[in-house]
Amino acid sequence: MAGHLLRNLTKGGKTWIPRFIDTLDRRVCTRCGFCPKVCPAGVLHRVDDGEVVIASPEDCRGCEVCERTCKVGAIRCRPLEDKP
After folding, report:
1. Which residues are CB-contacts of 26 (< 8 A; sequence separation ≥ 6)?
2. What is the DSSP string of 5-34?
3. pLDDT tens-digit map of 9-23
4. Could you count the other beta carbons within 10 Å of the beta carbon of residue 65?
5. Is the Cβ–Cβ distance between 64 and 77 less than 8 Å?
6. 4: which residues sit within 8 A by CB, 6+ positions away?
7. Which fold is adopted by the domain 2-82?
8. pLDDT tens digit string along 22-64?
């Protein structure tokens, strides 16, 4: 299935590889709360104590906005084809 997706996800001659959130490292996270604000799918949520959680990983669109905007590198995304 991943190969089929890769053939169809091209834009401007570049192939987009679908990704998913693999890691949210709480030891590194500063609890700034920015990643839940930028996630277009609402996958990340900030709970009462300020901690960020991956609330609905199945809704992840693989856009990597969270990973790219995390200033401390607490979020890591992997290619969808690597998903266990």
Report:
1. 51, 74
2. HHHH-EETTEEPPPEEEEEE-TTT-----H
3. 555 666 656 678 888
4. 16
5. yes
6. none
7. Alpha-Beta Plaits (3.30.70)
8. 889 999 999 999 999 999 999 999 998 889 998 988 888 888 9
